[in-house]
């Protein structure tokens, strides 16, 4: 494994059909009858969301009239209110960008400039690894298991983290693991370790909206903890995986005061502003979710998760219980020989596109050959038909 460069993607490997990353799989999946690959939101609009769509012309003209700053503030205010993050709201230093990957690139630029290596959680969505590696940031894995026991987090990190920065995804994509499993203590221990040892803490919170309706976890005021600790931090938030808005999205980057100026200067080298129309529209979706307590987001995911569990119960795909019910489900392949790569390839012939686990294990792809990921943010009717098809296909491997 080449920790500092990109994955090998020679023309030959492309010519024989091997796909280099998950995004290339997701592009194939967009052409497949049942696309269960990307974690983007493909479900239909709820009744109140349809009313927002009906008002789009009005939102467009409104955005033409007002000041950019008005729409930025309206959006950030709604977002952090929904997420119950008063400290982030009060600090007024959040930088907006078109996509989480852009915010991650800014993080990567900062790390590269400071010549920092980073310990990145594994497994995780490969896009994070690829963006950082392609920017020349040296990467080392830190296994998710390091965070399993709150009393051992500090010592585990002390033993494992040799780099200047620690990069976490919480809740994690694909596993749904979250430090919130341990209440406040999980994050407190991570922050304490980073503060004591002078490590920059980077957290990708792109899946955080799913913690808001999970009865077993409580998203507390993260930014209060981060700010009061004095740790150097960079936190990425996102709207992209939450609302069905055809990939109109906005990501947010908030960083500690000690590095804010340096990061702001990198941020402005990349972009001026996010579309005021998109901000105006997203603010409406967020307000709608505050109003309905996120039920439009929750109901689709809960229903599809149940459908998948029922349909696949007793099959070779063994459901992996997450900490947070995120918008993807993670399954272990219970079969002595069948790999994720083989099974995924076979299922495409049935019109089903799932993601094979190997890409999520970016430092050791072989470890991911026992896992498949299924995206849940889909129209329930389509999803149900897909699960029926999948269960029938898996019968071929019944033992
Ligand atoms: C999808 C995703 C991203 C990247 O979001 P884009 O909108 O594709 O840039 C980053 N982090 C996590 C955890 C994600 O799921």
UniProtKB/TrEMBL annotation:
Gene3D superfamilies: Aspartate Aminotransferase, domain 1, Type I PLP-dependent aspartate aminotransferase-like (Major domain). It holds the Pfam family Aminotran_1_2. Keywords: Aminotransferase, Membrane, Pyridoxal phosphate, Transferase, Transmembrane, Transmembrane helix. The chain crosses the membrane at residues 95-111. It comes from the Bacteria. The keyword Phosphoprotein does not apply. This is Aminotransferase class I/II-fold pyridoxal phosphate-dependent enzyme. Residues 116-389 form the Aminotransferase class I/classII large domain. One of its GO terms (molecular function) is transaminase activity. Its cofactor is pyridoxal 5'-phosphate.
